[in-house]
Structure formats: structure tokens, C-alpha cells
Amino acid sequence: MIQEFWGYRRKDRKFGIRNYVAIISAMDNSNPTVRRVASIVRGTQAVCPTFGRGSMGPDLDQHLRTVVNIGTNPNVYGAVVISLFRSSAEEIAQSIAKTGRPVEAYAIEEDGGTANVANLGVRAALQLMGDAGRQRREPMPWSELVLGMECGGSDGSSGIVSNPVTGMVADMVVDRGGTVIMSETVEILGAEHLVAARAKDPATKQKLLEAVNFCVTYAKEVGVDLLGANPAPDNIIGGLSTIEEKALGAIKKGGSRPLMEVIGYGHRPTKKGFVIMDAPAPGVENVTALAAGGTQAIIFSTGKGNPSGHPIVPTIKVSGNPFTVELLKDNLDVDLSAVITKGMSLADAANILEQELVDVCWGKPTRADLLGETEVAISRLCRTV
Questions:
Q1: Which CATH architecture has domain 142-371?
Q2: CA distance 103 to 42
Q3: Helix, strand, coil % (nearest 5) of the chain?
Q4: Per-residue pLDDT at 385
Q5: Half-sphere exposure (Cβ direction) of 204: Cα atoms closer than 13 Å
Q6: Share of the chain above pLDDT 90, in %
Q7: CA–CA distance, 342 with 196 (Å, rounded to integer)
């Protein structure tokens, strides 16, 4: 067993495995300015969500919560928040500041337009980067790790190699006192009874089943039968013929430990161990939700291939498909195809993936980081009016 790694302790007592300064856009029309600042000050990370203007009610609440929670992710040292107008920038900045993180806020309308705000943002980011560089790492126990689990571009290999191996690493983290978050509620459909059987109590079981049933009911309301519309075309090409077959493979990435809690989109767990987040399945949206949930790293299992990662949370891409690891080798971090081609055991594969996780926790960049294949998309709840 790999004993420990080192991380950065924040003032809110959370540990991060990165020491990022986040340049955060409060709404989509400030995204270009945010990208401009991040392109000038190396080492900063641009967080540019879609939408954010015209949202209302629960949709606005979810947008703000997600942006704030990304800005207070343990991997973030401090932030520069940019918006079109001051009220939204300061609302987000003030929430981030409550965690003890240094933060500056600027408004395009009140602070002289995009060129001047970019100038102000660059100066603030330079100061924050210098301050962040003074922070030293200290031993970070496994109990402080919050690990996200995602799968995308699933195929036949996902359910027999990369997902079960990812699940074995999930169990390792939970057994050491850490937290694992699995999401993609619709991906549980067809195997929800197996996950529900792991719930620690009837209330947790009921909450999971209600989340899955909502997906089915909501889809029917808009004229879609999920039981007939899933898997997606790429899943079918990859050999998955039914939603039950897809689900049986997908749930393996969550391991086998008791289900301790079911949380909402972008919320933080209140319990350690295995947790499920009720979030949509599409990769970018789901990884965004996991980042807002406080994960310091994400393991992303893929069969057919998916290059997307997150700017704040290192996203480890792992595949057991020998064709995919050859075609998309530049986008993958862990090649487990030897399970199929050479008879490597799942236990040995899990050790390889565990070592990669530790290396990333120590600071190794993922392929998505190196190639800039990172994106943010906050899921919508309501129609814009």
C-alpha cells in the first residue's frame, strides 16, 4: 500500500493536490476576458462556464453554487472573479472569501471595459501567483482525499476492465478513510437495485431510487423513453446493446463499499466513504459537478475514448480497450489493455492505476492538463426567458 502523499492545506482545513489560482468568469459574456488573463499569467486556470446570465430561480442557485464551489475547491489557492457587472462578481467573490482564500473581483461595466479589466485581472493574478508560490506542502492523509469517478465513451471493455479496476481503486481509497463520489444518475438505470442494496439505511436507499426514477419520469414528460433510447450510438458501436448492460458496467467504477450518502448536483459530501451525486451523465457537465463537489482528482474510465478534463481537478483517463489506447494514446494516462491482450490480472491493473493516482496527487500533470483539453459546463435546470 502506498502510504501517503503531500498536499496544500487551506485555511478551511481542506487539502489540495494543486495550488491553482483560478480566474473565474461569473457569466458567459466575461469568458473572453477571463481567458485573456489566464493566457498572460502562466500557471493560472481559466474557469469559463456557459450561461450565467438570464438564469432564474433554482437554475441561478445552481449556477452560483457551482461557480463558488469550483472557486473553493481544495485545489484552489485563490481567485480572480470577473463579471459583466459588479453585483454578480462580488457575490461570488464574497462567498469564496468566506473560506479564507484571497480573492479579487472586477466588473467590465464599472471598471473600464474588457481591456482595462484584463489589465487589472493580470496584476491581481500576478500577486496571487506569487503568494501561492510561498505555500509549502505537508503530509496529506488518504482520509482527506475526495476522488471523483466518471466513465464516458463506454464500450464492452469498460465493464470488464477499466470500470472494475477503477472500482478497486475506489475501494482502496474508502478503506483508507477517504471519500469517493460516483455520479451520472441515468447510468445507474437498470442496475439501481444493486447499488441501492449497498445503502447504509432505508432513507439513503430511497433517495437513490427517487433520483433514478426522476430521470425516467422526466424523460417521459418530454417524449423520450430512456429504456429505449440508451445506450448512445457510440455505446452501441462499442458492443453495449441494452441500458441494463451499460449500467452493470458503469456501476462497477463505484467499487463495492456501502453507500453512505446521496447528494445533489455540485454539493459537497457530509460523510466519508462511497457517495453518489445526482448529476447528469454527459462528460463535461458531470466532471464540472464533481469538481464543485470538492474532488481533488477524478478517474475517468473510457472505452471508445473521451479527451475532456477539468481545469481545476486533474482528470486521469484510463482505458482497457487495446484499439483505443493505440488510436488515442496521446489523450490517455493509463493503458490497461494488457488485461485483454496479455492476461494481466485486475489486481495488478488496480495497482498500476493506484500508482498513477498517487503520482498525480504528487503533481504529475494529466494528458488533459498538458494538452489543454479542459472545459466547464454547468447543467441547466430551466429554460432561459
A1: 3-Layer(aba) Sandwich (3.40)
A2: 18
A3: 45, 20, 35
A4: 74
A5: 18
A6: 78
A7: 35
Burial status of residue 329 (CB atoms within 10 A of its CB: 0-12, 13-18, 19 or more)? exposed
Q: What class is the 20-132 domain?
A: alpha beta
Which residue type sits at 208? L
From the number of C-beta atoms within 10 Å of its C-beta (0-12, 13-18, 19+), residue 58 rates as exposed
Instruction: State whether the Cα torsion 1-335-161-345 is positive or negative.
Output: negative
β pairing state of 138-140 and 273-277: unpaired
Which of these, 306, 307, 308, 303, lies nearest to 322 by C-alpha position? 303
- Grid coordinates representing 151 are 466513465
224-278 pLDDT, tens digit each: 777 765 666 555 555 556 667 778 888 999 999 999 999 999 999 999 999 999 9
Which of 371, 276, 280 is CA-nearest to residue 317? Answer: 371
Give 112-124 pLDDT, tens digit per residue.
Answer: 999 999 999 999 9
**Is the full-model pTM beyond 0.70?**
yes
**Cβ–Cβ under 8 Å, residues 16 and 10:** yes
* The C-alpha cell that represents 149 in the structure block: 469517478
**Whole-angstrom distance, CA of residue 55 vs CA of residue 186:** 25
Q: Where in the chain is the domain with CATH 3.40.50.2300?
A: 20-132
**Per-position b or e across 40-52, b if 16+ CB within 10 A of its CB:** ebeebbbbbbbbb
